[in-house]
Amino acid sequence: MESDATHREPLALPGKTFSTARMMRATVAIRVALAAAGGYLVAALVGVVLAQWLPWPRADNVIAGMLAALLVWPLAAMFCCACRSTRRACVSMAATVMLLAAAALSHGWIS
To answer: From the centroid of its chain, how far is CA 108?
Structure first.
């Protein structure tokens, strides 16, 4: 006898069309790609910004930026999966990348 807690819905429900299942899979694929690529981009930019803005010697700044990037990447990936919608995840990641890129460029990242 199954209880309500252990009951799981099948992947293909009679009321759902094939295109809805495809849309759900595409949404998951987009979130995974965004978590990997966007998380890497955000982490790399955090490392660059910290390497430029910290007041320590250059080598210490680079190491601190790299270590912070290792913490930021999984957080960005978890954020992509925790957002209510894929659109919100994309917009949030794009805004974060633009802000970090502006901060890096304002301090002379590419000279």
So the answer is: 25
Specify the pTM.
Answer: 0.79
pLDDT digits (tens, 9 = 90+) for 7-24: 665 555 566 565 888 888
| Token pair belonging to 58 | 């250059």
Q: Are 39 and 77 in contact (CB under 8 A)?
A: yes
